[in-house]
Design a protein that fits this description.
The protein has 3 domains: 175 residues, Flavin prenyltransferase-like (Rossmann fold, 3-Layer(aba) Sandwich); 208 residues, Rossmann fold (3-Layer(aba) Sandwich), CATH 3.40.50; 94 residues, Beta Barrel (At1g16640 B3 domain). 29% of the residues lie in helices and 28% in strands. It has 15 helices and 28 strands. The protein starts with 6 loop residues before the first strand and ends with a strand.
Length: 495
């Protein structure tokens, strides 16, 4: 999942912010992506191609005609190889040329030739960015499906401040992952994740809390985003940066988390409770700070906090966590049954490198039937993906979905034939329906076609643009249909 094995064509243009591009190239490479850098002539005035070559381990393209290149027709080969094209920083000049369709250098040629999604991170002086011409150019690119990230407000190279700084590398990286996730196995799903340790006030200064860092919940939120889900992260106080392209709801107490989760789970497909929620709170909060010299001893009367997993209702998967110091599996199974969960993830908080505050975790995943899956010590992001693998399996079983194997005629004529066996899942002839895809919603119509001695359905209207967005599809590949709303709405994705 994420960037592992993906080809990122990385365009670098002539801006003082180009120094951040080296950091982005490094992080993309460390994440497992194959990074193909294209530099404009102006970019080479700020930083040398050797820098990117050493970072990525790949040759850097700087000219239209590279005689020693491994690519036969460079701009076409790079365009076809790309899973995503990223331009960061993107100058006003490059943005204007792309908007006008000018192809006078390798970067612009590659963008014109690719069918991959394109992410642009503008960087320029505030007056240039705010100029109506630049705004019109960006609007044109957005209308054509480009994703624009930034710019940020701050100090500029001119010495002034304004809107024009290249956004932080983390924000660009998160946006790339979100864009790549549009064809993931959680597209169209809404996942609610909780994270961090709640804080129950004692007085205006002190609180009852725990040592949860929120790392596991944040990893789950980012992993779900990277698989195409709409993600709501309900977060107790945490020092972690806000995940990009995730709807974050900040809360403090267990009661606040309960109210936020109750609201967030509307139309959710899964609730993953990774937060360390306080079990008790003070029955009465002191209005002013309790002074040490005025109180020889202190007794606090506590009461239970809301049981969020037990009290929040809805038709969604419920995944809980159990941080245990003894009898881990037995205690987790008891909690699974008591709270009627679909899965529970348990870990031994006394184990080295596992649990609170660590970057790694060693967990067991237990399902409703009591089956225990033991995972080795893994980075929390990998643990998150293993948990989500199980969530996807459960969602698949709960939904009506089927696979169609593509034939040459489907691809050449841009339609999909619905088998007779699945005919009952679709509306009558000439009725409209909606397909949820990685390129947006497609409004289409059920049409009749002859299949042997039976009359079956085919979907044709509007599918041309979906096939055009997926030139890699070939005969024998599968596509998945999932019923979202019977007879009205369906999810379509590559198998």
């Amino acid at each position: 999942m994420g960037l592992e094995g993906k080809t990122v064509v990385f365009g670098v243009t002539g801006s003082i912010a180009v120094y951040k591009a080296a950091d982005l190239a490094s992080q993309l490479t460390q994440a497992g992506a194959k990074v193909e850098v294209i530099m404009t002539e102006a970019a080479t005035e700020f930083i040398t191609p050797l820098t990117f070559r050493n970072i990525t381990g790949r040759p850097v393209v700087t000219k239209m005609f590279e005689l020693n290149s491994e690519f036969s027709v460079e701009h076409v080969a790079l365009a076809e190889a790309a899973d995503v094209v990223v331009i960061a920083p993107a100058t006003a000049n490059t943005i204007a040329r792309l908007a006008a369709g000018i192809a006078d250098d390798m970067l612009c040629c590659t963008v014109l030739a690719t069918k991959a999604p394109i992410v642009i991170a503008p960087a320029m002086h505030a007056a240039m960015y705010e100029n109506q011409i630049t705004q019109d150019n960006l609007a044109k690119l957005q209308a054509r499906g480009f994703t624009i990230v930034g710019p940020a407000y701050g100090r500029l190279a001119s010495g002034g401040t304004g809107l024009g700084r290249l956004v932080d590398v983390g924000e660009i990286l998160g946006t790339i992952c979100q864009v790549l996730g549009r064809s993931g196995d959680l597209v169209g799903k809404k996942i609610v994740v909780t994270a961090g340790g709640t804080q129950e006030p004692v007085d205006p200064v002190r609180c009852l809390t725990n040592r949860s860092s929120g790392k596991m919940g944040y990893a789950l939120a980012e992993a779900a985003r990277d698989r195409g889900a709409q993600v709501v992260l309900v977060s107790a106080p945490s020092a972690l940066p806000k995940p990009v392209c995730v709807d974050v709801v900040n809360v403090g107490t267990a009661q606040e988390m309960y109210e936020a989760v109750k609201k967030a789970v509307d139309k959710a497909d899964a609730l993953i409770m990774a937060a360390a929620v306080a079990d008790y709170r003070t029955k009465k909060v002191a209005e002013s700070k309790i002074k040490r010299q005025q109180v020889a001893s202190l007794t606090l009367e506590l009461e239970r906090t809301p049981d969020i997993l037990g009290e929040v209702k809805g038709k969604f998967l419920r995944i809980g966590f159990a941080a245990e110091s003894e009898n881990m599996v037995a205690n987790a199974k008891e909690k699974l049954q008591r709270k009627q969960l679909d899965l529970i993830v348990a870990n031994d908080i006394t184990a080295k490198g596992s649990g609170i505050g660590a970057d790694t975790n060693q967990v067991v995943i237990i399902d409703r039937k009591g089956k225990v899956e033991e995972l080795p010590l893994l980075p929390k992001r990998q643990v998150a993906d293993r948990i989500l693998d199980r969530v996807v399996e459960l969602l698949d079983k709960a939904s009506k979905r089927f696979e169609i194997i593509l034939k040459p005629s489907y691809i050449n004529s841009h339609f999909i034939h619905i088998p007779v066996a699945e005919r009952g899942l679709f509306p009558e002839f000439k009725r409209s329906l909606t397909l949820l895809t990685d390129i947006g919603e497609i409004e289409t119509t059920a049409g009749l076609c002859k299949s042997g001695t039976h009359r079956a359905l085919e979907l044709r209207k509007g599918l041309g643009k979906w096939y055009e967005a997926h030139p890699e599809l070939k005969s024998g590949d599968g596509v998945i249909f999932e019923v979202v709303e019977p007879l009205k709405k369906y999810r379509l994705r590559k198998a």
